[in-house]
Design goal:
Elements: H1 2-20, H2 32-55, H3 62-85
Length: 86
């Protein structure tokens, strides 16, 4: 009887110890405005890289570069508008 009582107390004590352990709090999620700002910065960075690649292309003619830049600007403008709508 004593062994049963002691093992029960031990089992309850250990289970309480396990359940009392604190779990780490999850990291805070970025707010909507922070998320939009991050995406906007990524978009700007990608736009600048593509623009630089177009302007520094050795074989493209001036007309080809203008057409590519025009298309890039339209794409960039539409993506910025989509970000603002969010």
């Amino acid at each position: 009887m004593k062994k049963l009582f002691i093992s029960t107390i031990l089992l309850v004590g250990l289970s309480m110890n396990v359940s009392a352990q604190k779990h780490p709090t999850p990291p805070p999620h970025p707010s909507k405005s922070e998320l939009v700002n991050i995406k906007s910065k990524e978009l700007d960075k990608r736009y600048n890289q593509e623009k630089k690649a177009i302007l520094n292309h050795p074989l493209a003619t001036k007309k080809m570069k203008q057409d590519q830049l025009k298309a890039l600007n339209e794409k960039y403008r539409s993506q910025k508008q989509l970000l603002k709508k969010m």
